[in-house]
Amino acid sequence: MPNSFTDSRRDLRERAFQALFSLEFSGQMPAGAHFAYEYDKDEGEDLDTPLFLLNLTQGVMAHQDEIDQLIAANLKPGWTLSRLTLVDKTLLRLGLYEIKYYDETPDRVALNEIIEIAKKYSDETSSKFINGLLSQFINE
Fold first, then answer.
1. pLDDT mean over 56-70
2. What is the distance between the terminal CA atoms of the chain, rounded to a whole angstrom?
3. Sorting pLDDT into bands at 50, 70 and 90, what band is 26?
4. Residues 111-122, buried b or exposed e (16+ Cβ, 10 A)?
5. For 3-80, where are the alpha helices, taking DSSP H only?
6. Confidence band (pLDDT; 50, 70, 90) for 136?
7. Residue 53 pLDDT > 50, yes or no?
8. Contact, 8 vs 49, CB < 8 A?
9. Which member of 42, 89, 105, 112 lies 3.0 to 4.6 Å from 84 by CB, making a disulfide possible if both were Cys?
């Protein structure tokens, strides 16, 4: 039986990914995440739910330089952050933010959720790559 709390959290993680991805092009955070509040309001969802989305998107933005340094330091020799696809880079940022900085989510849950989103927006190779890189931060 689906857990609506988990399902809504995954939906909001996915929306955070979409907002962060769109930020790479527009640079405007409020416009990128505003739709989530409207969606929840229209559906009669708990109005605290968009706070999770905003925490994720604003948290990634606030820590992006640190997150990018951590990702770059854990790439294979010869690889750079600029070599990653925008989808993979955005997913890594979101997943690593939730693992390293967002204490409300257990690390393994954050990892599993970002892998599921990666499977939807990327391919199997990317989801394995994301799993391998982010797993390094859980095992430390």
1. 96
2. 33
3. low
4. bebbbebbeebb
5. 4-26, 29-43, 49-73
6. very high
7. yes
8. yes
9. 89
Sequence length of the chain is 140
pLDDT of residue 2: 47
The tokens 């900085």 sit on which residue? 101
**Alpha-carbon torsion 106, 30, 35, 43, what sign?**
positive
Task: State the amino acid at position 40 in one-letter form.
Answer: D
DSSP one-letter code for 2: -
47-70 b/e (C-beta count within 10 Å ≥ 16 → b): eebbebbbbbbebbeebeeebeeb
- Cα–Cα distance between 44 and 15 in angstroms, integer? 18
CATH classification code of 4-139: 1.10.940.10
Residue corresponding to tokens 């892998």: 115
User: d(Cα 114, Cα 90) in Å, to the nearest integer?
Assistant: 10
pLDDT in tens, 32-47: 455 545 544 455 454 4
Q: Is residue 52 within 8 Å of residue 9, measured between CB atoms?
A: yes
For residues 27 and 80, the model is more confident at 80
The tokens of 115 are what?
Answer: 């892998």
